[in-house]
Amino acid sequence: MAFTTLIFVIASCVVTLLAFCGNAQLSRNFYATTCSNLRTIVRNATQQAVTKEPRMAASLLRMHFHDCFVNGCDASILLDDTTTVQGEKNALPNKDSVRGYEVIDDIKAQVEAACNATVSCADILSLAARDGVVLLGGPSWTVEFGRRDATTANLTGANTDLPSPFSDLATLISMFQAKGLTAQDMTALSGAHTIGLAHCSLFRSRIYNDSNINSRFAATRQASCPPDQGNGDTNLAPLDVQTSEQPFDNLYYQNLLTQRGLLHSDQVLFNNGSQDALVLSYSTDNSTFFRDFSAAMVKLSKISPLTGTEREIRRNCRVVN
Ligand code: HEM
Ligand SMILES: *[C@@H]1O[C@H](CO)[C@@H](O)[C@H](O)[C@H]1NC(C)=O
Ligand SMILES: *[C@@H]1O[C@H](CO)[C@@H](O)[C@H](O)[C@H]1NC(C)=O
Ligand SMILES: *[C@@H]1O[C@H](CO)[C@@H](O)[C@H](O)[C@H]1NC(C)=O
Ligand SMILES: *[C@@H]1O[C@H](CO)[C@@H](O)[C@H](O)[C@H]1NC(C)=O
Ligand SMILES: *[C@@H]1O[C@H](CO)[C@@H](O)[C@H](O)[C@H]1NC(C)=O
Ligand SMILES: *[C@@H]1O[C@H](CO)[C@@H](O)[C@H](O)[C@H]1NC(C)=O
């Protein structure tokens, strides 16, 4: 092959690769020259928030999940309702439940002060979610950057695409599959329920009406969650009965083995079904859990990002520019 032909072949491969990856691909060093302090700023601000209230790590992690499952990881969850935008904050799975918006505002303000109009809200949320897990003793994973922010939200999508605590196993698997995540990813990601709290209204039927529940555990939870609808609905209980606040560990899976999952959707992962073996292995080996959780978080955080010059870098995460 002539030298010039070889060069041409190599050049067209590079061009093809760029065309292929340049758009849809996120990268580690996306802000290397434009906001080199990003990681430090976000880590510090997340640490302050989590030190003040450890649960904030759980809340930010869940917020990232609820962002990514609705039109991709595009910070659509952060948009407030305005006359022109109908946000997702009042969707059933989010209303009076997703929290931590002020923490993202605070981080964004600090990032804007250092790197004006450069870093997307979607990237900030992804990074803060990771930092929160690490701060509570959980695994770390590489966060890649380059997501852009949506200029619209999808209330309908938030109501239809986020899993419900009353779901059965087949429904959970198919809802994750619809986002490109496997049953294993779903089971590993559910381990996020090793931290954080849930409302009585969302586990009432579980503690009064499910059969696969430890009776002492049910009695304990019933003490602060009365049976009648509308009564004590907003009372909170830890998702992980053993070490709820922290650390981020694998005891969530050990709870499932003793039928002490708080949500119906937790216990279906260990109920003589397809995920039993995986739950068993995560319960005995935190390194396997950490490895699979991290890999699944990387996948979750890359669901349909906006990239390149799509949409915008929002200046204030709550409103479009
Ligand atoms: C498998 C399907 C899932 C269902 C049905 C589900 C459902 C729920 C429900 C009902 C709550 C309590 C909300 C409240 O009472 O206000 C909750 C909390 C939480 N979820 Fe999930 N979840 C699922 C998967 C996930 C995933 C994939 C993650 C993250 C990777 C996650 C992270 C969390 C965290 C950290 C909390 C506690 C939030 C806090 O204390 O502020 N969940 N989830
Ligand atoms: C760390 O975060 C806190 C709270 O957000 C902020 O007040 C402080 O200025 C930050 N410090 C640095 C060095 O960025
Ligand atoms: C920040 O960037 C915006 C948009 O590029 C620009 O209009 C504004 O003047 C900048 N502000 C500062 C303080 O540099
Ligand atoms: C909103 O989400 C639903 C469910 O995923 C989807 O079918 C629909 O296309 C989305 N709408 C917009 C405008 O993105
Ligand atoms: C339990 O199930 C029964 C029968 O379906 C229903 O009448 C009752 O309201 C349920 N109780 C709770 C607390 O979910
Ligand atoms: C993982 O499990 C081992 C053995 O049970 C335990 O000694 C270790 O502290 C655990 N590590 C974490 C980070 O939970
Ligand atoms: C699972 O199957 C075993 C053996 O068939 C049975 O004893 C047990 O009650 C079942 N557990 C559940 C939660 O269905």
Write structural notes for this entry.
- Helix content is 49%, strand content 2%.
- It has 321 residues and is an all-alpha fold.
- Helix 2 runs antiparallel to helix 4 (101-114), helix 2 (38-52) packs across helix 5 and helix 13 (276-284) crosses helix 14 (286-300).
- The protein is globular, with a radius of gyration of 21 Å.
- Bound molecules: protoporphyrin IX containing FE and 2-acetamido-2-deoxy-beta-D-glucopyranose (6 copies).
Helix-strand blueprint:
Layout: H1 3-24, H2 38-52, H3 55-68, H4 101-114, H5 121-135, H6 155-161, H7 169-177, H8 183-189, E1 197-199, H9 200-209, H10 215-222, E2 236-238, H11 251-257, H12 264-267, H13 276-284, H14 286-300
Bound molecules: protoporphyrin IX containing FE and 2-acetamido-2-deoxy-beta-D-glucopyranose (6 copies).
Quick structural gist:
This protein has helices at 3-24, 38-52, 55-68, 101-114, 121-135, 155-161, 169-177, 183-189, 200-209, 215-222, 251-257, 264-267, 276-284, 286-300; strands at residues 197-199, 236-238. With 321 residues, the chain is an all-alpha fold.
Helix content: 40-55%
Radius of gyration: 21 Å
Shape: globular
Mean pLDDT: 94
Contiguous uncertain segments of 5+ residues:
1-23
The main sheet comes to:
2 strands, antiparallel
| Residue share in β-strands | under 5%
Main β-sheet, spatial strand arrangement: 1-2
Q: End-to-end span in angstroms?
A: 53 Å
Number of strands: 2
Order of helices and strands: HHHHHHHHEHHEHHHH
Helical segment count: 14
Structural class: mainly alpha
The kinds of small molecule bound in this structure are: protoporphyrin IX containing FE, 2-acetamido-2-deoxy-beta-D-glucopyranose
